[in-house]
Specification:
With 977 residues, the chain is mainly beta. It has 5 domains: 10-124, no CATH class; 137-244, Immunoglobulin-like (Sandwich); 245-377 and 388-701, no CATH class; 711-785, no CATH class; 843-960, Sandwich (Immunoglobulin-like). It has 8 helices and 62 strands. The strands form 16 sheets. Strands 29, 30, 31, 32, 33, 40, 42 and 45 form an 8-stranded mixed sheet that branches. The relative contact order is 0.07. One of its GO terms (cellular component) is cell surface.
Amino acid sequence: MIIGPCNQYSIIQDQEKRSTGYTTDQSTDDIISDDMINNTWYRVISRNGDEIATHPPGVFHCGTLNPIWLNGSLPDGNEENVTREACLQTVDGICEEKIAIEIANCSEGFHVYRLQNTTANSAYCFASFPNETAHPEVEVILVEGPVYNVPNYEPTPSLSSAFQCSFEVEQQDSFVYDIYWYINGNSVTVFKDIPNNDLRGTILKDKDWKGKYQMNMDVTCSVRIRYSAGSLPGPFYKSPVYKAGFYPEKYVYTVIEGEHVNIAFTSTVPIGCIASHPEIRSNCYQNFYIYQPQYDNEEPVRCKNNIVNRDVVFRTKFCGIKVGNLDWKEKKHLQVYGFSDGLYNHQDRSTFIRFSSTSVSDVNHIWQNIKITDIKLSVIDKDSALTSRLCQSYNDPHITTFDGRAYHYMDIGEHVIYRNDRGPYWVHALFTNCGFGWAGSACHCGIAIRSRQSLFVLRTCKKISRKEKYLLDQPITEIRTCVDSDMSVVSSGDSYTVTLPIGTEIKFTVSTYSRFITMVSVKPSIYDINEARGLCGVPSATKDPSDDFHHREQGPITDDQKFAHSWKIHPSTNPKEQLFIPNPHFLSEEPNIEIEIENDNSNANVTTGTYCICEKQAGKVGEEFYTAQCSLSDSTQYCPSDEQLLPGNEKPNNPVVTVCTSSKQRRSLSHRSRRSVTDTDDVVLDNDSLDYDDDVNDNITELTFRNGWTEEDANLTCTKRIKKSLPSELPDIPGLSDYDYIQSCIMDIKFTAGTDFVQDTVGAAQTKTIMELSRNETLSLTDLETDDGSQTILDYVTSLLCPNNCTENGNCTSGVCSCNDGYIGDHDCSEEMSKPPLNISLPANGLCGTRTRACKRTNIYGTFKSKTIWCRRRHFRILDGLHEYTSDYETIKADYRNLFMISVNLESPRRKRSTDDAVMADGFELSLSNDGKQFGNSVNIFIFDEQCFKCDTKSKKCYLLDSCPVTTTDPPEAVTG
């Protein structure tokens, strides 16, 4: 064997740090220095290769401070031994010192080098790591997991989400790789020296970060390439940040009341599934629930003007967004509506939407407690566009449209005051002769309000006439509904307030003196703009009165009488629109409920509501909770009945009889018994169907001032009364003018030859003032120093707007009288409490059959000017031919319902009845008092089996019927107490 450098050399081994890509860390590395080597031949054995560096690597590389590199090329295959120039690189230059070295190209495929020793802290550089460049990217994949038993399906692996670091390099199979995973910049797990074929095992699984991080996190991966396991790795190649989670398009939005914005969401991670069967995968989803943190507490519902205080609602099927296993790549949308609070807001409102994902399955636990940044929503007020927009019809009647156009219309019959097809919502009024001896007058004697499939009716007349007035002994008041959310009815003395689901408010008053409805006021909502029709005209977006006289068929016209007449309901031509008949047509129709939700974030069947409140957060199992919040039919809401409080925080009783009747059911037109489905004793017998006199088509006659009145006198009287009723302290109210009220007052004096209607006109002016002031949020937030201390401007001003200033017998608060001791009547405190209610009556003339009613309580009709009514009762029994009292007088408190109705509990002996029992009926003698001392006239109620007896309350006698079965089942016990 020939001795030469290729087989006789020293070895430099396991010094991979001599690679050009290695950066020396002076704080931790032992600095390589070749100042001690011998001037002899060396072979380099390194996993990174044995070739000397041919480019300046840079100071502080190759494991030393001053690296040495070959300023030339290695010998090619035809060369054996060559002499080359090497350079010492320092901070002063890339070739600060030149060094001569020899290089031998050995046939066995390696090189040997004859090296000279160097200065301290300098060393020769050999080889490097792979110079391949990688561009890694984080990708999401579904990986198979455990098999779960799913009934009726073949077992298939479950699917869960994972992250994969994907990249490509040339000759990829020639290298091994290091994969580093990071979440939010923090190292999570590392895989080293992984061959290309095993890269599938480097995915980031949920077990690597579960319990440490939540979704909506930044995921990155880094790759280093090596020639072989343990060799010097190349540089880190880092992926772009992968936003892993569920993200909105942006985090700040603005929405106008009554309008909406669509918030787009993107899921960047697939949803897992308990199986990989396609049918099962189509039913795998993850819900992301929404709520508003500022409302997530136990505070009660806040209301103002019978409208709930809220900021936004959501047009969806449940409070959240659903993302499926198969559609996770599709964008999801959340439709958010600005909530109309019915106030003229002093500034924009704002709220935040927060997400939660507390309810997850085993394969989707990565979504547990997702961290989505709160989304801010600013709500811009739109209600202020309706400032001073109030329709009023009062007295005989004088009408002002929504946009402020006044006219006078004195036809009689049923007319459409307001109509909006959105519900549909209708307000109809009945006009009949006022009874002042003039055939040209027309007063309100009925109001009917339809809200979708529900109907509220209050009627005081039994016949419509041009020349005469025909009033009922007691007004008929009733709600026919099977859906509590169709309308809100609140009674306060002689005033009623009905609020529709769209926020439109109808307020009217009933005179205890004349028994006419003195005023109907309709405050439109933003959903009425350019939509409402009827005698109230069209509320335009800019208060444009030019189109107010909108003829039902011809559109806008100039003739106010022709316009108004077009909205008259003629029984012969508009029979399906009549609301004052026993069975209005719409109640027999099937409700047309078509829910259209453009969102794709649903998970449950739609109920009657399509808007969700989404204010509170549920616990771990919250799907039913989030669905239950979706009961609204519009982007506003009147105050729930259990949140409406009377002065003194007293909850009101249901003011009227509420009836739910099947749309398929037909009742006798001559004798109808209306019943509550929950209370068979809450009954109204409205035998007095509405009739029309033969003179209804007679022409209106003209009148002049009479009884000593002149136009000048009327003007002076009206101006004085109306200006006195509106205090000078009132702030400026746009659109509030006393001119129209004064002119109407003058006409009333002309028609009636007296001042009978003046106070009603004053009441209409005060009502408009209060309805406008109460919607001005600034007035309720601004304090005013008064003699009584600090109070808001709203409280102070409305304390000056009570009828007759409460006759000096009470205090005025928000336009409502609180009477002093000894006086009653929240209208004006003009009645003495010692005067008892008189002329009271009972349903069905006091007859209560135990087979159709529970007879545990009864309504009593009359005029009740106090909310505290005392009932004195005494029990008696009807025997064959006589009656006997079986108890002493007992005084109990009645339940106040409304101005014309109270309810009283009854009690009877608890015993079985039989056909041979001598007792034919039980009964009570009832009388009422305002002060618990002075009682008025008494009425009698008989409780009996109507299959066996016929009774008469006036004669206090009962008669056995031949039809009474010899053996019969026991009738219901007429017992309470």
